[in-house]
Specification:
The protein is an alpha/beta fold. Helices cover 43% and strands 16% of the residues. It contains 14 helices and twelve strands. Strands 2-8-7-6-5-3-4 form a seven-stranded mixed sheet, sandwiched between helices. The relative contact order is 0.17.
């Protein structure tokens, strides 16, 4: 199968499987698992922070950060298209007892002036703003420019408000911007980085920030049931993921651009090539609903996995298990489906 539903479907490499089998382990709640400790040390170094914490997922990482930064009844500012708001089951309300002030940004790229205007400090009628949440790369496949992140971070610092970066695909963003990952993370007080998407680890995310923040976050992770025991079996492949796999992400980006370019050549398919900045391709079909609905099944019958249409758009995500040849197969099958058989 050619699986372009997401980059979460990536399979761990043979080296990751071997590392999981042979690594040294301990009890991580006692903090004596040497492999977890090494992962956290390296993650902090790579992300440019004082300390890091290994968690099971991006949602757990984001929510642990928010719990650590906020008090009940306070408010966070977040994009209305952010993963924290759209895809984390309303966890901010349930776990932190905080309100989400959502803002709509053009193409999802955050605007410092809009964020500052939404900040509330002392008002008997409104919750105090205690956190600003950013995302890079964005869920729409675009990348936030460093200038925008810098402006927001400096504004937030003046107002005494921390910034959390949901960096689920922050390495993709760094590759797209042509910078070291630290150039992104320097504009956030905490950063969550997913290791099980394009980086191919089977499980896990890391949360990085200052030492005192991570110590508080460690207790919140425990509260959420995230205190693991012989977690080195998971940390060993995650260590390979964060140290080695960012080097190959440009391949996914190139394949995504090839896919977008090919889709644009198919009559009846509309794809904005300029929006393809990482490994995500969004497109729509100028066809009736019946034709659009049958497209995923047709692809499946030809060995290609894709999600159903969502709000009029299809999404394909290139990843380590999708080759240049696979991209060409997807384009060929799509042409055949729309009556343009080679």
């Amino acid at each position: 199968m050619i699986d372009v539903r997401s980059d979460t479907v990536t399979q761990p490499t043979s080296r990751m499987r071997e590392a999981a089998f042979s690594c040294a382990v301990g009890d991580d709640v006692y903090r004596d698992d040497p492999t977890v400790n090494r992962l956290e040390e390296r993650a902090a170094e790579i992300l440019g922070k004082e300390a890091a914490l290994f968690l099971t997922s991006g949602t757990q990482s984001n929510q642990t950060a928010i719990m650590t930064w906020t008090n009940r009844g306070e408010e966070i500012i977040v994009s209305d298209s952010a993963h924290i708001y759209e895809h984390e089951v309303g966890a901010v309300a349930v776990l932190s007892g905080a309100n989400m002030r959502t803002l709509h940004f053009e193409n999802g790229v955050p605007d410092s002036a809009m964020i500052e205007d939404a900040i509330c400090e002392e008002d008997i009628h409104r919750p105090v703003t205690s956190l600003i949440c950013l995302e890079n790369a964005l869920a729409n496949g675009r990348v936030v420019p460093l200038s925008a992140m810098k402006e927001i971070y400096e504004m937030a610092d003046r107002r005494g408000i921390p910034v959390h970066l949901d960096g689920a695909r922050c390495f993709n963003a760094a590759v797209a911007l042509g910078v070291d990952i630290k150039e992104l993370t320097r504009y956030a007080d905490s950063v969550s980085c997913c290791l099980s998407k394009g980086l191919c680890a089977p499980v896990g995310s890391v949360l990085a920030g200052k030492k005192d923040f991570i110590e508080r976050a460690r207790k919140n992770r425990k509260l959420l049931g995230g205190g693991m025991r012989q977690a080195g079996i998971l940390a060993a492949p995650a260590l390979i993921a964060i140290e080695e796999m960012p080097k190959r992400l440009f391949e996914d980006h190139e394949n995504a651009k090839r896919l977008a370019e090919g889709l644009c050549r198919i009559p009846g398919v509309v794809c904005d090539q300029e929006a393809v900045e990482i490994n995500m391709v969004f497109f729509r079909m100028e066809a009736d609903a019946k034709v659009r609905a049958a497209y995923p099944k047709y692809l499946l019958d030809h060995g290609i996995l894709v999600n159903d249409e969502n709000h009029g758009m299809f999404r394909m995500v290139t990843n380590a298990d999708v080759t240049r040849e696979d991209v060409d197969i997807i384009l060929k099958v799509t042409r055949e489906y729309l009556g343009m058989e080679d």
